[in-house]
Amino acid sequence: MSELLRVEGLNVTYRTRGGLLPAARGVSLTLRKGEILGLVGESGSGKSTVLTALMRMLPRSARVAAGRVDFDGTDLLSLGDAPMRRLRGRRIGLIPQRPMTSLSPVTTVRKQLALLSGGVIDDVRAQRLLTDVGLGGLYDRLGDYPFQFSGGQLQRMLMAVAVLAHEPDLVLADEPTTTLDVTVQAQILRLLLDLRNRLGNSVIFVSHDLAVLSQVCDRVGVMYGGQLVEAAETRDLFTNPQHPYTRALLDAMPSRRARGERLRAIPGTVSGSQRLPGCPFAPRCDVATDLCAAEAPPPRPVAGSTVRCHHAGATS
Ligand SMILES: Nc1ncnc2c1ncn2[C@@H]1O[C@H](COP(=O)(O)OP(=O)(O)OP(=O)(O)O)[C@@H](O)[C@H]1O
Protein backbone atom coordinates (compact mmCIF):
# COMPACT_ATOMS: atom_id res chain seq x y z
CA MET A 1 0.00 0.00 0.00
CA SER A 2 1.37 3.43 -0.85
CA GLU A 3 1.49 6.31 1.60
CA LEU A 4 -1.26 8.95 1.73
CA LEU A 5 -0.27 11.00 4.75
CA ARG A 6 3.01 11.65 6.53
CA VAL A 7 3.14 13.78 9.67
CA GLU A 8 6.60 14.68 10.92
CA GLY A 9 7.48 16.31 14.24
CA LEU A 10 4.14 18.08 14.70
CA ASN A 11 4.20 20.53 17.62
CA VAL A 12 1.03 22.44 18.57
CA THR A 13 0.96 24.94 21.42
CA TYR A 14 -2.06 26.65 23.03
CA ARG A 15 -1.85 30.06 24.66
CA THR A 16 -3.53 29.66 28.05
CA ARG A 17 -3.83 31.73 31.25
CA GLY A 18 -1.17 29.51 32.78
CA GLY A 19 1.25 30.11 29.87
CA LEU A 20 2.01 28.13 26.74
CA LEU A 21 0.67 24.58 26.72
CA PRO A 22 2.42 22.17 24.33
CA ALA A 23 -0.55 19.92 23.42
CA ALA A 24 1.14 18.00 20.60
CA ARG A 25 4.84 17.32 20.92
CA GLY A 26 6.90 15.87 18.10
CA VAL A 27 4.05 13.73 16.74
CA SER A 28 5.13 11.72 13.69
CA LEU A 29 2.92 9.21 11.92
CA THR A 30 2.23 7.74 8.51
CA LEU A 31 -1.00 6.53 6.98
CA ARG A 32 -1.15 4.25 3.96
CA LYS A 33 -3.86 4.34 1.33
CA GLY A 34 -6.85 2.28 2.48
CA GLU A 35 -5.54 2.00 6.05
CA ILE A 36 -7.48 2.70 9.26
CA LEU A 37 -5.25 4.15 11.95
CA GLY A 38 -6.58 4.49 15.48
CA LEU A 39 -5.41 7.15 17.93
CA VAL A 40 -6.10 6.31 21.55
CA GLY A 41 -5.32 8.08 24.81
CA GLU A 42 -6.89 9.57 27.92
CA SER A 43 -8.81 12.82 27.76
CA GLY A 44 -6.30 15.65 27.30
CA SER A 45 -3.59 13.52 25.67
CA GLY A 46 -3.72 15.54 22.43
CA LYS A 47 -5.73 13.35 20.02
CA SER A 48 -8.19 16.04 18.91
CA THR A 49 -5.39 18.59 18.67
CA VAL A 50 -3.59 16.39 16.13
CA LEU A 51 -6.79 15.79 14.15
CA THR A 52 -7.76 19.46 14.17
CA ALA A 53 -4.24 20.47 13.10
CA LEU A 54 -4.53 18.09 10.11
CA MET A 55 -7.80 19.78 9.13
CA ARG A 56 -6.15 23.18 9.74
CA MET A 57 -9.07 24.07 11.99
CA LEU A 58 -7.21 24.85 15.21
CA PRO A 59 -8.59 27.72 17.34
CA ARG A 60 -6.86 31.10 17.23
CA SER A 61 -5.19 30.42 20.57
CA ALA A 62 -3.25 27.55 18.97
CA ARG A 63 -0.01 27.72 17.03
CA VAL A 64 1.67 25.02 15.01
CA ALA A 65 5.16 25.57 16.35
CA ALA A 66 6.89 22.96 14.17
CA GLY A 67 6.30 20.05 11.89
CA ARG A 68 5.38 18.96 8.40
CA VAL A 69 2.17 17.37 7.14
CA ASP A 70 2.46 15.83 3.69
CA PHE A 71 -0.90 14.81 2.25
CA ASP A 72 -0.47 13.00 -1.06
CA GLY A 73 2.40 15.32 -2.06
CA THR A 74 0.85 18.54 -0.70
CA ASP A 75 2.29 20.27 2.36
CA LEU A 76 -0.90 20.99 4.29
CA LEU A 77 0.69 23.36 6.79
CA SER A 78 1.89 25.80 4.15
CA LEU A 79 -1.14 25.52 1.87
CA GLY A 80 -3.13 28.74 1.34
CA ASP A 81 -6.55 29.09 2.99
CA ALA A 82 -8.53 28.85 -0.27
CA PRO A 83 -6.95 25.60 -1.54
CA MET A 84 -7.23 24.18 2.00
CA ARG A 85 -10.96 24.95 2.02
CA ARG A 86 -11.30 23.13 -1.31
CA LEU A 87 -9.45 20.13 0.12
CA ARG A 88 -11.67 19.98 3.20
CA GLY A 89 -14.80 17.97 2.52
CA ARG A 90 -13.68 16.97 -0.96
CA ARG A 91 -10.42 15.15 -0.23
CA ILE A 92 -10.49 15.16 3.58
CA GLY A 93 -13.81 14.37 5.27
CA LEU A 94 -14.67 14.79 8.94
CA ILE A 95 -17.05 12.63 10.97
CA PRO A 96 -17.86 14.61 14.13
CA GLN A 97 -18.10 13.35 17.69
CA ARG A 98 -21.65 14.43 18.53
CA PRO A 99 -24.05 14.23 15.59
CA MET A 100 -26.79 16.07 17.48
CA THR A 101 -24.72 19.13 18.34
CA SER A 102 -22.98 19.24 14.94
CA LEU A 103 -26.29 20.05 13.29
CA SER A 104 -28.45 23.12 13.71
CA PRO A 105 -31.64 22.28 15.63
CA VAL A 106 -33.73 24.78 13.64
CA THR A 107 -32.91 23.71 10.08
CA THR A 108 -34.32 20.65 8.33
CA VAL A 109 -32.02 17.70 7.79
CA ARG A 110 -32.52 18.01 4.00
CA LYS A 111 -31.13 21.57 3.99
CA GLN A 112 -28.22 20.67 6.25
CA LEU A 113 -27.13 17.65 4.22
CA ALA A 114 -27.16 19.81 1.09
CA LEU A 115 -25.17 22.54 2.84
CA LEU A 116 -22.63 20.20 4.45
CA SER A 117 -21.98 18.47 1.14
CA GLY A 118 -21.25 21.76 -0.61
CA GLY A 119 -24.46 21.51 -2.62
CA VAL A 120 -23.79 18.11 -4.19
CA ILE A 121 -26.60 16.32 -2.32
CA ASP A 122 -29.87 16.99 -4.11
CA ASP A 123 -32.98 14.89 -3.48
CA VAL A 124 -32.03 12.15 -5.95
CA ARG A 125 -28.52 11.85 -4.53
CA ALA A 126 -29.86 11.96 -0.95
CA GLN A 127 -32.02 8.91 -1.60
CA ARG A 128 -29.04 6.94 -2.92
CA LEU A 129 -26.74 7.99 -0.09
CA LEU A 130 -29.31 7.19 2.59
CA THR A 131 -29.81 3.75 1.06
CA ASP A 132 -26.02 3.26 1.03
CA VAL A 133 -25.85 3.83 4.79
CA GLY A 134 -28.89 1.66 5.51
CA LEU A 135 -31.38 4.51 5.96
CA GLY A 136 -33.34 4.26 2.69
CA GLY A 137 -36.60 4.23 4.68
CA LEU A 138 -35.93 7.73 6.04
CA TYR A 139 -35.98 9.50 2.69
CA ASP A 140 -39.53 10.79 3.18
CA ARG A 141 -38.55 12.33 6.49
CA LEU A 142 -35.71 14.56 5.28
CA GLY A 143 -37.90 17.58 5.89
CA ASP A 144 -37.79 16.76 9.63
CA TYR A 145 -35.47 18.40 12.16
CA PRO A 146 -32.43 16.69 13.80
CA PHE A 147 -34.20 16.12 17.16
CA GLN A 148 -36.73 13.92 15.32
CA PHE A 149 -34.01 11.34 14.53
CA SER A 150 -31.95 9.10 16.81
CA GLY A 151 -28.24 9.77 17.40
CA GLY A 152 -27.34 6.66 15.38
CA GLN A 153 -29.47 7.78 12.42
CA LEU A 154 -27.91 11.25 12.46
CA GLN A 155 -24.41 9.80 12.68
CA ARG A 156 -25.12 7.60 9.63
CA MET A 157 -26.34 10.63 7.72
CA LEU A 158 -23.22 12.60 8.65
CA MET A 159 -21.10 9.64 7.58
CA ALA A 160 -22.92 9.61 4.25
CA VAL A 161 -21.97 13.26 3.80
CA ALA A 162 -18.38 12.87 5.05
CA VAL A 163 -17.55 9.63 3.23
CA LEU A 164 -19.90 9.25 0.27
CA ALA A 165 -20.75 12.74 -1.00
CA HIS A 166 -17.21 13.38 -2.31
CA GLU A 167 -15.51 10.06 -1.56
CA PRO A 168 -12.52 11.78 0.11
CA ASP A 169 -9.16 9.99 0.26
CA LEU A 170 -8.86 10.68 3.98
CA VAL A 171 -11.61 10.52 6.60
CA LEU A 172 -10.98 11.91 10.08
CA ALA A 173 -13.31 10.46 12.69
CA ASP A 174 -13.22 12.10 16.13
CA GLU A 175 -14.80 9.65 18.58
CA PRO A 176 -17.73 9.07 16.20
CA THR A 177 -19.37 6.44 18.41
CA THR A 178 -18.79 7.88 21.88
CA THR A 179 -22.31 9.21 22.37
CA LEU A 180 -24.07 6.12 20.96
CA ASP A 181 -25.24 3.00 22.77
CA VAL A 182 -23.31 -0.21 22.24
CA THR A 183 -25.49 -1.84 19.55
CA VAL A 184 -25.67 1.34 17.49
CA GLN A 185 -21.93 1.77 18.01
CA ALA A 186 -21.35 -1.67 16.47
CA GLN A 187 -23.48 -0.75 13.43
CA ILE A 188 -21.53 2.47 12.89
CA LEU A 189 -18.19 0.63 13.14
CA ARG A 190 -19.39 -1.97 10.62
CA LEU A 191 -20.50 0.81 8.28
CA LEU A 192 -17.12 2.52 8.53
CA LEU A 193 -15.37 -0.75 7.62
CA ASP A 194 -17.80 -1.45 4.75
CA LEU A 195 -17.25 2.00 3.30
CA ARG A 196 -13.47 1.67 3.57
CA ASN A 197 -13.57 -1.76 1.90
CA ARG A 198 -15.76 -0.40 -0.88
CA LEU A 199 -14.02 2.95 -1.49
CA GLY A 200 -10.46 2.26 -0.33
CA ASN A 201 -10.24 5.51 1.64
CA SER A 202 -7.89 5.97 4.61
CA VAL A 203 -9.23 6.76 8.06
CA ILE A 204 -7.81 8.22 11.27
CA PHE A 205 -10.13 7.10 14.04
CA VAL A 206 -9.78 8.83 17.40
CA SER A 207 -11.11 7.14 20.52
CA HIS A 208 -10.37 6.76 24.20
CA ASP A 209 -11.60 3.16 23.93
CA LEU A 210 -9.07 0.52 22.87
CA ALA A 211 -11.82 -2.11 22.51
CA VAL A 212 -13.53 0.00 19.83
CA LEU A 213 -10.26 0.58 17.98
CA SER A 214 -9.38 -3.12 18.03
CA GLN A 215 -12.50 -3.84 15.97
CA VAL A 216 -11.74 -1.53 13.06
CA CYS A 217 -8.12 -0.40 12.99
CA ASP A 218 -5.20 -1.83 11.06
CA ARG A 219 -2.76 0.08 13.23
CA VAL A 220 -3.08 1.94 16.52
CA GLY A 221 -1.14 4.90 17.90
CA VAL A 222 -1.18 5.56 21.64
CA MET A 223 -1.01 9.19 22.79
CA TYR A 224 0.06 10.44 26.18
CA GLY A 225 0.88 13.97 27.31
CA GLY A 226 0.92 15.29 23.73
CA GLN A 227 3.26 12.58 22.47
CA LEU A 228 2.66 9.51 20.37
CA VAL A 229 4.26 7.10 22.82
CA GLU A 230 3.68 3.89 20.84
CA ALA A 231 2.42 2.90 17.39
CA ALA A 232 2.07 -0.63 16.04
CA GLU A 233 -0.08 -3.01 14.02
CA THR A 234 -3.25 -3.58 16.05
CA ARG A 235 -2.48 -7.23 16.73
CA ASP A 236 1.10 -6.50 17.84
CA LEU A 237 -0.09 -3.71 20.11
CA PHE A 238 -2.55 -6.03 21.83
CA THR A 239 -0.31 -9.08 22.07
CA ASN A 240 3.07 -7.45 22.65
CA PRO A 241 2.69 -3.87 23.92
CA GLN A 242 6.04 -2.13 24.46
CA HIS A 243 5.17 1.05 26.37
CA PRO A 244 4.24 0.81 30.07
CA TYR A 245 1.27 3.14 29.38
CA THR A 246 -0.02 0.88 26.59
CA ARG A 247 0.28 -2.09 28.97
CA ALA A 248 -1.62 -0.17 31.66
CA LEU A 249 -4.37 0.76 29.17
CA LEU A 250 -4.73 -2.88 28.14
CA ASP A 251 -4.82 -3.96 31.79
CA ALA A 252 -7.66 -1.50 32.38
CA MET A 253 -9.82 -3.05 29.62
CA PRO A 254 -12.76 -4.95 31.16
CA SER A 255 -12.81 -7.51 28.31
CA ARG A 256 -9.23 -8.55 29.05
CA ARG A 257 -9.72 -9.25 32.74
CA ALA A 258 -10.89 -12.62 33.94
CA ARG A 259 -14.42 -12.70 35.37
CA GLY A 260 -14.41 -11.60 39.01
CA GLU A 261 -10.89 -10.15 38.74
CA ARG A 262 -10.58 -6.49 39.80
CA LEU A 263 -10.10 -3.91 37.05
CA ARG A 264 -6.82 -2.07 37.30
CA ALA A 265 -7.14 1.69 37.09
CA ILE A 266 -4.02 3.68 36.23
CA PRO A 267 -3.13 5.74 39.31
CA GLY A 268 -2.59 9.51 38.87
CA THR A 269 -3.72 11.75 36.00
CA VAL A 270 -2.48 12.85 32.59
CA SER A 271 -2.97 16.48 33.64
CA GLY A 272 0.18 18.62 33.43
CA SER A 273 2.24 15.86 31.83
CA GLN A 274 2.81 17.94 28.66
CA ARG A 275 5.06 20.31 30.57
CA LEU A 276 7.39 17.66 32.01
CA PRO A 277 10.94 17.69 30.64
CA GLY A 278 11.28 13.90 30.60
CA CYS A 279 8.87 11.12 29.72
CA PRO A 280 5.31 12.41 30.30
CA PHE A 281 4.24 9.06 31.78
CA ALA A 282 7.15 8.89 34.26
CA PRO A 283 5.16 10.07 37.35
CA ARG A 284 2.66 7.22 36.87
CA CYS A 285 5.03 4.56 35.58
CA ASP A 286 6.12 1.65 37.74
CA VAL A 287 9.39 1.11 35.84
CA ALA A 288 10.46 4.77 35.67
CA THR A 289 13.98 5.72 36.72
CA ASP A 290 15.80 9.06 37.17
CA LEU A 291 16.63 9.01 33.47
CA CYS A 292 12.89 8.93 32.59
CA ALA A 293 12.18 12.03 34.68
CA ALA A 294 15.15 13.90 33.20
CA GLU A 295 15.17 13.01 29.51
CA ALA A 296 12.34 12.53 27.03
CA PRO A 297 12.88 9.25 25.20
CA PRO A 298 13.00 9.57 21.40
CA PRO A 299 10.86 7.23 19.27
CA ARG A 300 12.63 3.99 18.35
CA PRO A 301 11.66 0.65 16.85
CA VAL A 302 11.26 -2.23 19.31
CA ALA A 303 9.68 -5.58 18.38
CA GLY A 304 7.37 -4.25 15.66
CA SER A 305 6.38 -1.09 17.57
CA THR A 306 7.69 2.44 17.37
CA VAL A 307 7.94 3.36 21.02
CA ARG A 308 9.07 6.25 23.20
CA CYS A 309 10.35 4.55 26.33
CA HIS A 310 13.91 4.32 27.69
CA HIS A 311 13.18 0.84 29.00
CA ALA A 312 11.18 -0.70 26.15
CA GLY A 313 12.66 -4.01 25.13
CA ALA A 314 14.28 -4.45 28.53
CA THR A 315 11.03 -4.52 30.52
CA SER A 316 8.67 -6.61 28.39
N1 LIG B 1 -8.63 25.67 22.76
C1 LIG B 1 -7.78 25.29 23.71
N2 LIG B 1 -7.15 26.20 24.49
C2 LIG B 1 -6.28 25.82 25.45
N3 LIG B 1 -5.97 24.53 25.72
C3 LIG B 1 -6.57 23.58 24.98
C4 LIG B 1 -7.50 23.90 23.95
N4 LIG B 1 -7.94 22.74 23.39
C5 LIG B 1 -7.30 21.74 24.04
N5 LIG B 1 -6.47 22.24 25.01
C6 LIG B 1 -5.61 21.48 25.91
O1 LIG B 1 -4.72 20.72 25.11
C7 LIG B 1 -4.51 19.43 25.67
C8 LIG B 1 -4.90 18.38 24.63
O2 LIG B 1 -6.30 18.45 24.39
P1 LIG B 1 -7.05 17.58 23.29
O3 LIG B 1 -8.46 18.03 23.23
O4 LIG B 1 -6.25 17.57 22.03
O5 LIG B 1 -6.96 16.12 23.94
P2 LIG B 1 -7.82 14.82 23.61
O6 LIG B 1 -6.88 13.67 23.82
O7 LIG B 1 -8.42 14.94 22.28
O8 LIG B 1 -8.92 14.87 24.75
P3 LIG B 1 -10.48 14.44 24.65
O9 LIG B 1 -10.45 12.94 24.54
O10 LIG B 1 -11.03 14.92 25.95
O11 LIG B 1 -11.06 15.12 23.45
C9 LIG B 1 -5.35 19.37 26.93
O12 LIG B 1 -4.52 19.68 28.02
C10 LIG B 1 -6.40 20.46 26.72
O13 LIG B 1 -6.80 21.00 27.95
Automatic annotation (TrEMBL):
Name by which UniProt lists this protein: ABC transporter ATP-binding protein
Natural source organism: Dactylosporangium sucinum
Entry GO terms, CC: plasma membrane
Gene Ontology terms describing biological process: peptide transport
UniProt xrefs under NCBIfam families: oligo_HPY
Subcellular location: Cell membrane
GO molecular function: ATP binding; ATP hydrolysis activity
Membrane topology, from the record: Peripheral membrane protein
Gene3D superfamilies: P-loop containing nucleotide triphosphate hydrolases
Alphabetical UniProt keywords: ATP-binding, Cell membrane, Membrane, Nucleotide-binding, Transport
Transmembrane segments: none
Residue intervals of the ABC transporter domain: 5-250
Family membership noted in the UniProt record: Belongs to the ABC transporter superfamily.
InterPro entries found in the cross-reference section: AAA+_ATPase, ABC_Ni/Peptide_Import, ABC_transporter-like_ATP-bd, ABC_transporter-like_CS, Oligopep_ABC_C, P-loop_NTPase
